[in-house]
Amino acid sequence: MSHAYDQTQYRPDIDGLRAIAVLAVIAFHAFPDYFKGGFIGVDIFFVISGFLISNILLKEMVQKKFSLIDFYTRRIKRIFPALLLVLIACLLYGWLLLLPNEFAQLGKHILSATGFITNFTLYQEIGYFNSRAELKPLLHLWSLGIEEQFYIIWPLLLFLVYRWKLLTLALIVVGLMISFALNIFYLTSDPEFTFYLPLTRFWELMLGSLISYFMLVKHDKSMHYFNKINPNILSGIGVLIIMMGVFYMENTLHFPGWWALVPTLSALFIISAGQNAYINRKLLANKVLVFIGLISFPLYLWHWPLFSFIKIVNPQESQVLITIAAIFLSFTLAIATYYFVEKPIRSKQKIVAIPLIAGMVAMALVGYMMTSEKILAQSSKISGIDNIIQAVGDWDYPGVRLKRSQFEGRKLFSQGNNPEKVLFIGDSNVEQYSPRIDKLMQENEPDIKSVIFASGGGCPPIPNVYSDSRIKCASLMDTAQTLLEDPKITTIVLGALWFKYFDTQRPSDYYYLENGQRYPLYSETEQGNGEIYLEKTYNALDNFFQLMNENNKKIYLLMSIPMGEEFDPLNRLERDFTGVKLINNTHKVSKNVLMPYQDIRTKLREVALRNGVTVLDPVDILCNDESCLTATAQGWPIYRDINHLRPFYVKEYITFFDEVLLSANQHNSNY
């Protein structure tokens, strides 16, 4: 019997593989421009976890020593100590640094973490206006949720079917295939579902279970096939593919999907090669990697909260030295956690699980009290912060009166019963005006024109312009062009945050697609081709206006609002590592804020003029000759973030839609 497949032995090479996985994730979070595919470390973790947990379960079942209570007690002793420590640290530092609404969200994430359902919580939070990933200190616990959900279900299933050996193999293979098929099926229709939920992720852990089954239960037969492949070739291919994936895979890929086979099969090759393969023995089993593998769990737990709090304090700055310091601090905390918390508790008797469970229940209660605002952040005491908190997240689309409908598979919203209709096409910068439209509809029914919104957050209203990270936008313009054929739609309003799509120096993954060829709209260097390809985008917009004219539509081009950090209500606050302060109460900023986008504004007006399109420009309302508004005279912020207006301001002051929706007689009688 070959030693390489002796599962009774500890395998240091697997701890080395753990180290590569955790280092890849940390590198991706710290320096995403250089380690673009480091996120695949999580998928490697899944395969390792499935292999090790199944190895323990199957071995105990073979020896008839399996106990569910013993298994779950070991999991509690393994997971709870470090997790509780990190949750307490995030709670304390969150109380110091976070705004009241952010602290309440942290409470929800703490509550989710105690029940190992963070992945479900994050899936429910998905939306265009949800807070950015780096501002969620416990975001990384989604993967722990999936692992623990697997650990809850898998032992029970194995215990039920193990007595029938073939049924055990069938359970693994069928479960793996179904989960993988669901992963492929939902990838395009609901990519977030595929990413976060266990049904589409369990196959990665079950791949590890499959390795364990063949190497332990079907030992002799598996050896026959494995011996036909040189284990050095297996591990060499696995390590090489992982390294290439870490540096070259993009997080904009449709993932997990088929691409997840890259890290998972690589992990399979490395584990299957056995600990005597040269790379496994010399590289993965070296003392440094093994040590990092041993502390990989607390290292994973600590690193992201540190990165997140740094981003919360310095959202606009990317400081390499601070990031490197955070990495060193992550290692320091991980080592301390391993030696002073994890190891001592794991050596204790089973009874220690009871206080650990009590501690997790207590933390869940604290999380609930934070969520329900019975425990408040320190910043809640700052005078005037309520105005800022009310502004952040203030949004009223689709509201209560827009009705949801489906058209050729795309979700639309509509309002009104008038046969004459106005079609709004665009992104969230069109959607932000719905409160004014709703006000007009309520005050002027039944004569006011009906409205239809064909829109979506981050969706460019330009034919042939796409983004891999905005899969749901792909059908927008096909839907819009079909709607043009409806004679009841007499008016089109086309609007967007145009700077987002036409600024070649603004990092983005938008591209123009022509004859299967992608033309990127972002120039990473001064010598980039973004400017050249951008001309195709302007031409596409020009052609779309011509198509609308051919269909006898009245066309309006809605320009973008002024945008920038200066308009963000959070710009009134300053955070450092000691807390939050209110520093800025200005109501205006210089009109020079428009200068970086003046060329785009001019070009859009030229395209509109060439096609007889009426231009609606919110700058005429929001700015005078010298400055642009950021707040009312009473000090209420009029923006919700850097590039969206608040509903109350739109409803009362953005009046240029009156001429679009009202007839001339109605307009004159009301104003």
Tell me what you see in this structure.
- The chain has 671 residues and is an alpha/beta fold.
- It is 55% helix and 10% strand.
- The protein is built from 28 helices and 14 strands.
- The strands form four sheets. Strands 1-2-4-3-6-9-13 form a seven-stranded mixed beta sheet. It has a three-stranded antiparallel beta sheet with strand order 5-7-8, with helices on one face. A two-stranded antiparallel ribbon has the order 10-11.
- A hairpin with a 2-residue loop joins β10 and β11.
- α2 crosses α12.
- It is globular and about 85 Å long.
- The termini are far apart.
- The N terminus and C terminus are likely disordered.
Shape category: globular
What low-confidence regions span 5 or more consecutive residues with pLDDT below 50? 1-7, 667-671
Percent of sequence in beta strands: 5-15%
Mean pLDDT: 89
- Rounded to the nearest angstrom, the distance between the terminal CA atoms is 92 Å
Question: What is the helix content?
Answer: 40-55%
The strand line-up of the biggest sheet is 1-2-4-3-6-9-13
Reported for the largest beta sheet, the result is: 7 strands, mixed
Number of alpha- plus pi-helical segments: 28
The whole-angstrom Rg is 28 Å
